[in-house]
Amino acid sequence: MYKSIRQWFAPAPAIPQKSEKEIQSLYPKFRFQVLESTFIGYTVYYLTRNNFSPVSKEIGEALSYTKSDLGDILAVTAITYGIGKFFMGALSDRSNPKKFMAVGLFLTAILNFSFGFANHYWIHLFLWGANGLVQGMGWPPCGRSLGHWYSVRERGTTFAFWNIAHNIGGGIVGVVASHSAAKFGWEYAFFVPGVIAIIGSIYLFIRLVDTPQSEGLPPIEVYRNDYPPEEKEDHEKELTTKQLIVEQVLMNKYIWLFAIINFFVYIIRYSLIDWGPTYLKETKGADLLGGGYSTLILEFGGIGSTLLMGWVSDKFDGRRGMVSLLCIIPIFFAFVGILINPPGNIWIDYVLFGLIGLFIYPPVMLLGVAGMDFTSKKAVGTAAGFIGLFGSLGRTAQGKGLAVLSTHYSWDVALGAILASTLIAIFLLIFSWNLRPRG
Question: How does it sit in the membrane (predicted)?
Answer without folding.
Answer: Multi-pass membrane protein
